[in-house]
Amino acid sequence: MDQQVQFRHQPRVLAIVLAGGAGGLLGVLTDHRAKPAMPLGGSFRLIDIPLSNLHHSGISDVWIMEQYQPKTINDHLRNGRPWDLDRTRGGLLVLPPFSGHEGEGFAEGNADGLLRQSAFIRDFAPDLVLVLSSDHLYRLDYRDVVDTHLRAGASLTMVTVDFDGDASQHGVVSVDDDGSVTDFAYKPEDPRTSIVAAEIFLYSTAALLDALDHLSGKNDGLGDYGHHLVPHFVEQHAVVEHRLQGYWRDLGTPANYLRAHLDLVEGKGLDLGAADWPILTEPPQVVPAFVGDRAVIVTSLISPGAAVHGTVRRSVIGSGASVAAGAVVEDSVLLGGVRVEEGAVVKWAIVDSDAVVSGERIGAGPDTPAVVDRHGTTSD
């Protein structure tokens, strides 16, 4: 194992939340918003998950790395107030692309984004750097990851899950019985194991900065974490896993996004309102939900400001959305402000904000949902 700095104090952790990607796999849902700003569970946003986990973990130095559609994220962040990050010292710092300095310009992947911020990380001088994606649904006390990292004397600790889906869409990890990572393959065609990286990485700062300096001359750039950065650590440093027990899902595709919401509805997913670990967000300033006298609602989440007069089964109805009498919504997600008109049928679908739906919008099933854009046009 690498020689690990022995801290005489609680290590200072800098959290960097990666919120810059375009989210292209979500298609029209991210044409006009950043993926971290995607609604979740009717009342939340995807970025609320890492920010809430950080709050409950007592980590208050948080940087948000932005690039694509940043206003859609900033409108929600509100200077970090919902997560107690609006502080005089520490707290929330937004990192947009910049010019006129080393590291300027747009990043080509999340590892390249870290390289562009490396001078600022060096100046801030944390002991550890916690790098988080903002499109996954899970609950985790990051202090447990820090404990794993320090006990192992590691340079990198990656959070992993034993995944029951298609591992080829993720970074695939091989581990020894002691938790040491022995192999890492980024989105391999033929995964060797079902253990995947949950895109939660804790680096010792010195090792991270040295690696970024070493890799900075790559002709093809650093790209995403799995292209060069994590393979370099696995080859050259002590890397261990911290296995995440419990629910975890990547919400980066329409199928995963719908499946996660159906899990919430069915009680199989994360408890967003758990008394000991609630998801925090900016509360909407809207009236309570309204349910008409002929409405039929079965096993669904109805957000504040929504109005239901028709039939809703196993679905999530976003804030300000409405389902008219004679309309049917099943196994679907309606984002904020959607209007489903009388006689319309929505099934196995995700309907984008403010769309007006008439007629049928029916997907082939939970793995191939129909996606309806803001103009009411359906793709699948």
Rg computed from alpha carbons, rounded to a whole number of angstroms: 21 Å
Mean pLDDT: 91
Which fold name fills CATH's third level, the topology of the largest domain? Answer: Spore Coat Polysaccharide Biosynthesis Protein SpsA, Chain A
The counted number of beta strands is 29
Strand order of the largest sheet: 5-4-1-6-11-8-12
Overall helicity: 10-25%
Q: Low-confidence stretches at least 5 residues in length (pLDDT < 50)?
A: none
Largest sheet: 7 strands, mixed
Describe this structure in words.
Pfam families: Hexapep_GlmU, NTP_transferase. Residues 15-264 form the Nucleotidyl transferase domain. Belongs to the bacterial/plant glucose-1-phosphate adenylyltransferase family. The chain crosses the membrane at residues 12-30. Residues 361-380 are annotated as: Disordered. This protein is of the alpha/beta class and 380 residues long. It has two domains: 13-253, Spore Coat Polysaccharide Biosynthesis Protein SpsA, Chain A (Alpha-Beta Complex), CATH 3.90.550; 290-379, UDP N-Acetylglucosamine Acyltransferase, domain 1, CATH 2.160.10.10. It has helices spanning 48-56, 70-77, 110-116, 118-124, 142-152, 205-215, 229-236, 254-266, and strands at residues 13-19, 39-40, 44-45, 61-66, 91-95, 128-133, 136-138, 156-162, 171-175, 181-186, 195-204, 239-243, 248-250, 290-291, 296-298, 301-302, 307-308, 311-313, 316-317, 322-323, 328-330, 333-334, 339-340, 345-347, 349-351, 356-357, 360-362, 370-372, 378-379. The strands form seven sheets. It has a seven-stranded mixed beta sheet. Strand 4, helix 2 and strand 5 form a beta-alpha-beta unit. It starts with 12 loop residues before the first strand and ends with a strand. The model has no long low-confidence stretch (mean pLDDT 91).
